[in-house]
């Protein structure tokens, strides 16, 4: 699913899983990382990565960061994306986060409308630098 | 410094440090959290919080997130902000992150120019939701 996307196609290597397995082990050992998948009929049809980030600002509040939201092409339009994001919001709240945040590529206009419908506000600019 | 800012003034409680001490202990015990301060003549004049986030996308790459960049009013215009961000970029690279990212409130126009001068691209929208 990471590669089945106009942006992801350029940056994933589905034929070589070794780096993904190493990364999974690291995620699995970190209590602040929550990698969830949605299954339907035994197939993985959605993913979401939630990170809980402790911090000092806002009276020592933790915030939650959503990354890697992906819905399989076969499962689009079924409300699965909404379900994944609502799970993440509920989990962030359960872990006493005061804020949940994500960035969305400026070209993903449909995604922007989707996040706004779910109650997010596009209050920030997201700056990135490749290393 | 968190409170000495048009946005921070509304959300910090410098008269009650207990929640900040609890949060600091949590940060201090997490190997992926790097809270740095800049000192000048024995005084803290700048802060930055760098989080390393393991992930599956981009071939299992880690990314780095910069939060809580603050420069004391007395130290503005001295290049300290640049020095803090360049430290964070170098540290992210040292930890094999492929990307460093941050969000900046849409109202902080001077900050946007600052990050662009340092090589960041405003390629994303930053969505937030208070919980």
Describe the structure.
The structure is a homodimer of 131-residue chains. Chain A is an alpha+beta fold and 131 residues long. Chain A has a domain at 32-117: Aminopeptidase, CATH 3.40.630.30. Helices cover 30% and strands 37% of the residues of chain A. The first copy, chain A, has a four-stranded mixed beta sheet with strand order 1-2-3-4, covered by helices on one side. In chain A, strand 3, helix 3 (80-94) and strand 4 form a beta-alpha-beta unit. The radius of gyration of chain A is 15 Å and the shape is globular. Chains A, B: Residues 1-131 form the N-acetyltransferase domain. Chains A, B: InterPro entries: Acyl_CoA_acyltransferase, Bact_Acetyltransf, GNAT_dom. Chains A, B: It holds the Pfam family Acetyltransf_1. Chains A, B: Keywords: Acyltransferase, Transferase.
